[in-house]
Amino acid sequence: NPMAMVPWGVYAGTPFHNVVGVCHSVRDTHAFLARTVGVPEPDVAFRTAGFNHQAFVLEFRDRRTGRD
Question: What total number of domains does the chain contain?
Answer without folding.
Answer: 1
